[in-house]
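#struct-help
A.M.: can someone run this one for me? Single chain, 255 residues.
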Amino acid sequence: MAGENLPWNIERVGYGDGTGKTVWVIDSGIDTDHPDLNVDLTRSLSLIYGNPSFEDGYGHGTSVAGIIAAKNNGSGMIGVAANATIIALRVFDDAGAGTLSRAINAVLHVGNNAKAGDVVNMSLGSGMSTTLDNAVRTAAEKGILFAIAAGNSSVDCYQSSPARVDAPGVYTISASDVYNRLWDRSNFGASVDFAAPGVNVTVTTKGGSIGGGAYGTSMAAPHVAGILALRGTVYSQGTITGDKDTTPDPIASVK
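D.P.: on it. Structure tokens below:
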């Protein structure tokens, strides 16, 4: 722990040793040279037709990965499931643009290749897609665990896939701030299972560094991915204030 940055967001949910755990990150790729990340170069791949690189040109996936699994190695930051193995499934290009078909293909790939107890982080969303929803459900039925961003449009996520999926092993996550309040742009609704930090959080950044000031349910979901990697389930410490539906979201925790 000496020399490590312990951001408020990691401290809030807790952390542990994720060595030997595997988390699949469906996102913009990963900075494979980042000294704080343990990336599986053999199993990582790009779902972008004509572009086989899973290097992160956009930065989003690298930030997500650090929250999940930044190493406890005496420098940088510490992740929730420190030292866990990250597998990058790249669906966003260097501008952060993606397609529904890439997301579906990535989930199908996970369903065919991940093992029970593996975790998938999906900090992405689309309009309603029964195909995407069903792919997530089918993979979850195999014991693969999903952490999914609720979305950042300040609306009920019942019209958003895969955030609207309400099934065992699938966790939809809203974003909260340092005061345990719902972030004003976070989506909400019956399918949301937990809240996690998503306001001014510290993350790993492409280019090998760390940085603060990251926002969104995209950053909340990976906290829960880390908890799932460590525990196989999610615990809670209290509930958020300011929820926009009738049930305040429990605050995700490793214990």
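A.M.: thanks! DSSP finds five helices and 14 strands in the chain.
D.P.: also worth noting: The radius of gyration is 16 Å.
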